[in-house]
Amino acid sequence: MRYRLKLISILIIASLIVSTLPAGTYAVAAPSSKEDITLELDTKFDVEGFIENMNKEIQDIYGISNDSVRFEVSTKFGTAKIYQVYRIKGNAEEFLGYTFAYGNPFGDKKTIETKKGKKTVYRYLGKALKSTSDPDDGFTNIEFPYDDYSGWTFPDLLPGSEYHSTFIEYPWIKSESKIGKQLSIAINGAFYSNKTATIKLKQQIVTGLVLVHPELVSKNLGPDGRVPAEDIKKLEQIPWEKYVHIYQPPTYSAWGMGVIWHRNKQTGKVWYKTIPIAPYSVVQSKYAIITAGFISDEIADTIDIIETDKGNGYKYLQLRD
Hints:
Blueprint: E1 4-12, E2 36-42, H1 47-62, E3 74-75, E4 78-89, E5 92-102, E6 106-114, E7 117-126, E8 139-140, E9 165-167, H2 175-179, H3 186-192, H4 195-212, H5 229-237, E10 245-248, E11 256-264, E12 270-277, H6 280-287, E13 301-309, E14 315-319
Antiparallel strand pairs: 1-13, 2-4, 3-4, 4-5, 6-7, 7-8, 9-11, 10-11, 11-12, 13-14
Helix pairs in contact: 4-6
């Protein structure tokens, strides 16, 4: 097997290290214009090698044991299918990592226009790592067009907002009585009981929402689609660890997915919204965050990182020996 090594020098600035900052103080920079997300199925991967790397990233980035969270090559729903995620801006494509789901796409479908022509997309890419008790639920496809909604944005769901609805706290606890279906608490427990993982996950949630759902982040997008800083700050203030049920965890390289539920105060009806969770590599590139996981102390320094291509097209970063 041939290895291609590329040496990258990264300047680590102590003031930007995530673990030294309280939640809500990390730097943010919203996309400069309205962008679309597109997915491309990648059939060239060594799936077993890819999943092995995802499990390694869970340990290395979050400090979570694979005894608590572990991806499988296949589940009862089928083998993992891997997709490349791109952001389309004009005629340019920007690579935003990977995502994967088990089995085949399913659910209702729509035809959308892309730069390469018309494309049929399904609501779900397949099944997630931890499915609910509802057989119709799956791993939401972030390329699928929005459903109709009432014009709310995520900051509207904060307590005291004008919108008459509130988040349902800890929906995975006594989930049958709260939302009408059984949820697995395994991933939530692993991430939310680990301070480092929780801080990073909240940054990944904010990043994912700004990139995929800017219209649901702010009612006051700029003429170029920019999300106002004050609305991003409101996203940061939301205690996502109380509300987001994680049904597939993110990694350094791959998107995860979660869901929230909120109950209308006037009608009592329960609504849900899926939450795209960006890879931590995208958090770093978009928000200038350097994770303390790359170094063992808090001293600003230059370290060497190896970008490794194992011959199957998948690239990942590791410390140079």
